[in-house]
Known about the structure:
- This is Insulinase family protein.
- Helices cover about 40% and strands about 20% of the residues.
- The N terminus is likely disordered.
Amino acid sequence: MRYIKYLTLALSICIFSCSKDKKVETVTEPEFKIAYEKFTLDNGLEVILHEDHSDPLIAVATMMHVGSNREEPGKTGFAHFFEHMSFNDSENVPVGANRKLIPEWGGIRNGGTNNDYTVYYEVVPKDAFEKILWIDSDRFGYMLNTVTEAALEREKQVVKNEKRQNYDNRPYGYTNEIVRKNLYPEGHPYSWTTIGALPDLQAATIDDVKTFYKKYYGASNASLVIAGDIDIEETKKQVEKWFGEIPSGPEVEKLVAQPANLTETKSLYFEDDFAKLPELRMVVPTVEDYHKDTYALSILGQLLSGSKKAPLYQVVVEEQKLAPNISTYQSSSEIAGEFVFRVRANENTDLDAVKEGIDEGLKRFETNGVNANDLKRIKAELETNLYQGVSTVLNKAFQLVQDNEFNGDPSYITQTAKLTNAVTAEDVMRVYNQYIKNKNYVMTSVVPKGQLDLAVTGSVEATVWKEEVVEGVANEEVSQGEEAVYEKTPSKHDRSEPPFGELPLFKSPDIWTGSLENGLTLYGIENNEVPLVQFDITIPGGELLDPKGKEGVSGLFANIMIEGTATKTPAELEEAIGLLGASINITSAREELHIMGSCLAKNFNETIKLVNEILLEPRWDEAEFARLKQALETSLKGREANPNAIGQMVLYKLLYGESHRFGIPGAGTLESTKDISMDDLKAYYANLSPKNASFHIVGDISKPQTEHTLATLNNWKGDTIQIPKETLPETPVKGNLYFIDFPNAKQSVILISKLALSSNNDDFNNLQYTNEVLGGGSSGMLTQTLRIQKGYTYGAYSRISAGNEVVPFYVQTSVRANATLQSLEIIEDMLDSYGTNFSDTEVAITKNKILKSNTTAYESFGAKLNILLEFSKYDKEMTFLVDDQNELISMNLEDYKHIIQTYLNEDEMIYVVVGDKTTQLSEVKKLGKPVIELDIFGNPI
């Protein structure tokens, strides 16, 4: 069903006739709206319903009006911690069902917490709709009695692992903590991070949980949105049944705006254990969300740095060559806002120079003011973004629930469109002068360890709390523990698990095909839910065509191709794309080059004209080439600070060997890229041929319209390109454990892998199916054991990548440093016994999970585009989605055991661990495997 046929930021279009005696005609288009119906239960819960029958799926989002801004010093991180606790048990839902059953029903589920709210959400096939209402309402109103000491302690470890993984064990992870502590006064609700402090988390008690729940988890402090393939009247009855008895809760006092008020500028430095590059941030206090000035401030951010014509980009990036990029943006929350300047500079760059560059860029902005064309371009881009933001039922649900809970208007996006479009150049200059110019700010200089000379002169040291890495796990061992003993809360309804509804039939989208005279094949899916199109041109080759010894050419080539054309400078091309509200990007992958884009359907013709110009009239801009090489060098240096990237890089080197292209990172190395010249990129250009290339498109456009527009691409000519055949190592490595030192790491990255098979192998689908129970999402054995039972990690998964070449199967996780050995032992045993323990129960779970997930797997434009990419790359039959399902249905237990025995032998795998050598090397040696130490580039020590 098409609810939003027209979306425009322009409220009216004036068409002027050339004849003076004809009247001016004004055509007013419908406002941009999301259709909804809203009602309120007697307990105060506000419910918003949105019908969308385009796919047989339903999204549910419950937003609690409580985030970290409701916490108090000494109990920070509690809103987020409570979100985790809420996914454990509840009175009428079995232990672990919240995390395990929903994926097995074919759905997705998660939650999130920020400064201001906690949101829980699911997308499920239509038949599981009432089951989701059962789980959601039970988590909302019936979980408190089930909380046990064991569950509390286990979830503490999970949240602590999340903090280590996302903050403590990565470069610049402490910056937000430093900014908040210094931007806001002590005790301000935003003076601490959402994740909180580890000591505060460790000190949390069951009484804390109960107090928090009773204070903030009342029905009157929440909004519920249900969007998708629903019947409004029937859904109202179901909502009343499942949510109507949840207590209203005490009235929660509304927060009033509390913007930061700095009396002086604060400049701080921090030596980062992991950073390889210096980074400067400047944070200026501004206004809260929904304030009238947020729209002009957001546009200001784009004007200052968001294009090649932007003054800060011109000074910092192009002229002074201090960094590969610069970003400026407005960030608003419920009671305060911030305007952020952020520059991750080139290696060894003095941040004093970066600060001076920013100052010079701002002076240039003050002198030149707002360019009318730039303002027009940004509004066009925002128009497209608005459509993309509501292109799925889950995105609509998020938009509706947030605008309702924080502004009382579920469809406030209509006002957002109006207010954004109404911003004038004068508004932008006014907010710049009012909030940014000559105002105090917090500035952070985060520099690599031992490089204090790069920090801004006069900075003072910032202090943060750091966790010490210790050996052993005695004080942090957790378990499932005993279930709580309690009397169930009385209810007038049967709150046992409801049955499935009628199973929605999986419908493969209609795919049309065609071709151009030059040999380019066409694949399309017409979808008119929103007036957008998304497209991709796939050209075989990619990184496989990199010259030996100059790995990284394809990536640089992809970047240079978008930097202008023969008749357009890089800035002019960027502007031309932006004025259409379009995006065009070129990326190099292992086996192909992709030219990708999206735009409003009405602008498809003009967008393809630009694609044609990019393809046939490259500019070969020497200045941009120099900038891109510097940016690549900076990126490759920054990669050395990422333990996950290090692990992946070394793993592929071990699996494929250095003579195979895939044994070298896709972007290349500092050594392989240093001598790449423009001539190398021009030579690579000869590989761009329409022969064996394919065009894929999804959106509000028909096959005839597409073919008519694409006729311009017939000017693109070329012969068939031969792709080099790579040779795999004759003797694969196996059985060893490779250890890479990452000093002071709070977590250990674990990768366990072996080369498996090509996507063209008849067993490929079956191996993917066989992996589902082991490591497919949160319901997989790996996450259920390492996270849910043990609390060692934030998540653990296993996967098989795809490709024409033989690809690896691998297990990946990041675990608490002092649980490295225990985690390795668990995974080793799990892999070793997987075939023995796989039974008819696992067969049934696999079939049910995958078959049902297909209902939700192909909703978005991106997902539909991936169908076309798979269809064309692997030369599949038109019915391949249904054929794959039938293949799954026909698999029996012996088939699964055969796949496990053939491809998942534990003794054929290698182990890669990236962690703190001082505390963990001696531990991992206890696993009993040969241990080989490597440096971060995979070289033996």
